[in-house]
Amino acid sequence: MIATGTQLNTLTQADFSDTVRRFFVMNPAKVTPQARQLFQVDSIGTGNGTQKLYQEMDTGTFARFKAEGENVSKTQAGSGYTRTAVLQRYGIEIDITYEERMYNQDQAVMNKLINLSNFGVQRQELDLTHRFTFSGATTYTNMDGQVVNIATGDSLALISASHTLAFTGTTYSNVITGSPVLSEANLAVAELVGATNVLSNYGDKRVMNFNKLVIADYPTNINLARQILQSDAQISAPNAAVLNVYKSKYDLVVLPYLATTATGAYDSAKKNYWFLVAAGAGQWNGFLAEWEPENLVMPSPGNNLVDSHKDVWTYGVRIGYDIVAVAGRGVLGSLNAS
């Protein structure tokens, strides 16, 4: 018998309470969240409104020559691009009848079915990852049918060859040149982009610590990335005495939802996407604004999750957050669709 539904009861879920003795086998585990480490987490909490604006600030870079007896030059300072995070709440629930609670044959299995922990975290992982999955676009339609604005402060896609700066006509690119597949040689290509395209809003050179290599869970790329980052010798070297300059240079971050559609289904066209990310405070200004960490809502006598007329209890989970990227600096991407 195959049964599914949003309410657990002895009619639609007879497997748990009929006369047949069964051994229930649980499905494989859910993915382990990885994407949160790529963002700056801003814990906002209650009592602080439902919106928060993130704004760049910048100054000039160099001191200027001062002639004897003349005034000292003044530097420039200004506030640049902005992005506003707006609270988005998510939740899920399941109902269970009195009969199913009291007379099911396997309470341990039933407890797992009504425990909705990680539903919110899994949704947050999907949303965080999809900032990279759809990083070549300014919007995408999520699994709820909502159009999500994922543009940076300059109104361009996160990964773009023509990002603008607030106080100069100079542009910069965070596209890994040629959008190549992952390789040792192409890591050097990415590093050159990172060394030459991190600029202040006045067009001056800046530096960021690119410390995360981000890939999909495509075994070919996982194995290659581990080989590049863990080998003692350069992997293309003719002898083992040659130093591997990439050993432990980056933390490898594998995103299980990177090569997916908006609903989380596998999308092979994205399996070769890869990124270098400067993660951490003061680095890439991608923010996870978190108003409400994942929390379970449980039935108890007298609360709205107990229907005393039907003897139905409701179990649920809630989470509230938004995700914004103010600028593209600090992320380099190859959106290779091969």
Order of helices and strands: EEEEEHHHEEEEHEHEEEEEE
Q: Strand content of the residues, in percent?
A: 25-35%
Reported for the largest beta sheet, the result is: 6 strands, mixed
- Rounded to the nearest angstrom, the distance between the terminal CA atoms is 42 Å
Class by alpha and beta content: alpha+beta
Work out the radius of gyration. 25 Å
Q: Judging from the principal axes of the Cα atoms, what is the shape? A: globular
Unreliable sequence segments? 16-20
Task: Record keyword descriptors for this entry.
338 residues, alpha+beta, 5 helices, 16% helix
Descriptive overview:
With 338 residues, the chain is α+β, with helices and mostly antiparallel strands. It contains five helices and 16 strands. Helix 5 (219-230) links the parallel strand 10 and strand 11 (251-255). It is globular and about 90 Å long. The two termini are 42 Å apart. Residues 16-20 have low confidence and may be disordered.
SSE blueprint and pairings:
Elements: E1 7-8, E2 40-43, E3 51-59, E4 77-86, E5 88-97, H1 98-103, H2 107-114, H3 119-133, E6 139-141, E7 147-149, E8 163-164, E9 171-172, H4 184-196, E10 212-216, H5 219-230, E11 251-255, E12 274-277, E13 286-297, E14 306-307, E15 312-325, E16 331-334
